[in-house]
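Revision sheet: structure tokens.
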Amino acid sequence: MPPITITQLESIIQGNGLKRDYVSWDEISPNVKWAAMASEDQLFPDHSGFDWDAIEKSLKSNPKKKNKIRGAGASTISQQTAKNVFLWQGEGILRYVRKVPEVYFTKMTEWAWGKKRILEVYLNVIEMGKGVFGIEAASEQYFHKHAKDLTRTEAAMIIACLPNPKEYTVVPESHFVERKTQWILRQMANISDDKDIMDLTK
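Predicted:
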């Protein structure tokens, strides 16, 4: 895991602090992995970061995946991981400046790490509340338990805040998180027959 990321440094500088506790793959509940893919990137096991040819091939070979979505954020989990670990956040000109290195680091993580490692790092470094980074810190903060013990609903609630974790609060549950949680739970049910996703969440 990275000693610290640019986003985490920004959190400290902005006065939001830094709560984090990196955990291994086996210390993260399958419910969390399932919820993350259901919400953010349902084709995560099938693509190569943002390889649209691979996605199209996967959809043709498995018609059941034709209705699968990547998530409202449009970026794949691989892209989000590259951005959070190696690059910076921000919109406008910062977003466009970031695109070229984002392509490079996304491809490098896909080649060097593989899917399990990417998802493990993703769930450890993303911000899940103001100054709260990673699923273990979020689990302790909101539900006073370890990430390995999170239920499906608790996992969905935490993942639901990801579009804007500073604004969409898990506890107390904001209206957005409440609605998004129900949507994620439905998506988790929809992908329950996807062998690639189920294999990856073990």
